[in-house]
Amino acid sequence: MIIVLKPGATKEQSDALIKVIRARGLQIDVSKGASKTVLGLVGNTSVLDMEQLQGYECVDQVIRVDVPYKRASRAFHPQDSVISVGKGVSVGGKKLAVIAGPCSIETPEQIEGVAKSVAAAGAAMLRGGAFKPRTSPYSFQGLKDKGLDMLCAAGKKANLPVVTEIMSADKLPLFLSDDVDVIQIGARNMQNFDLLKAVGKTNKTVLLKRGLSATIEEWLMSAEYIMAEGNHNVILCERGIRTFETYTRNTLDLSAVLAVKRQSHLPIIVDPSHATGKRWMVADLARAAVAAGADGLMIEVHNDPDNAWCDGAQSITPAMFAELMDSLRQLAPIVGREI
């Protein structure tokens, strides 16, 4: 249920209403916009009388929300959320956030070199995998703790916030102590509910990738798990879904960008690298994602992709990334954005 307050509602009036609602055991999320304030009610709203609530002088409208995700819904939070990451970087709003870096961290020289290159080209954040979920148990699994230290050191040198994937809740203290700026929940862990609850208890920004076969509603419900624990700093990432098509690694669902924008206030970015698995497709689909309304991109960049330890076929070179950024600077103003 949501309660829309009248534009002229006073703080005393809204505080009195909130006190009555909380006395019934309900939680309230307050969303203040330029012209109106919305109260989002979470819990057993059947204990409330809609007509009685409508009778309060400060109340303009009372609406029941049908979607199962509440805090992530557009109804609860009509304005687009802008998530602050740190170092002056945010996701959402007018400015596009481009995240770039290698699939996996290999050596200090590799990650620091890539960090320097993508920073020079205009990337907003540095990505890199220290803990790698792989389909085969015999594939490279990442450098783990050592790789995480390398990533954080490279991010500091390049003055870029860092994004990296967490695999299990027991690693959370390490991620927090190493000053990881954005904790990524990968596609395979999108419905790892214990992990979602754990990151929800922190105040760290969480990048939530869509599961391989997840519906939009299931994806937003996973975001709801994080937000229900108190952490509303959630960024969604479309990275392709599994279909019958085998030509590409996955099928990039750009319609998800528009669907999420209608259903939720959370920012959404697109990862064309994992979606296609093909280097030559990345730049064109990145531009298509921006044209479709994505708030940012996640691009895999490697200084020597042909010899990469992981996912080299979908990684572009620093020179290709610089060309992509130049083209995005031309495209962004056309769709009302900027780099």
Automatic annotation (TrEMBL):
EC numbers on record: 2.5.1.54
Keywords: Transferase
Ranges of residues in domain DAHP synthase ferredoxin-like: 1-65
Statement: the UniProt record of this protein carries the keyword Acetylation: no
Domain of life: Bacteria
UniProt xrefs under Gene3D superfamilies: Aldolase class I (3.20.20.70), Phospho-2-dehydro-3-deoxyheptonate aldolase, domain 1 (3.30.70.1140)
NCBIfam families named in the record: DAHP_synth_Bsub, PRK08673.1, PRK12595.1
Protein name from the UniProt record: 3-deoxy-7-phosphoheptulonate synthase
Annotated organism of origin: Megasphaera hominis
Lineage of the species this protein comes from: Bacteria, Bacillati, Bacillota, Negativicutes, Veillonellales
Name of the gene: aroF
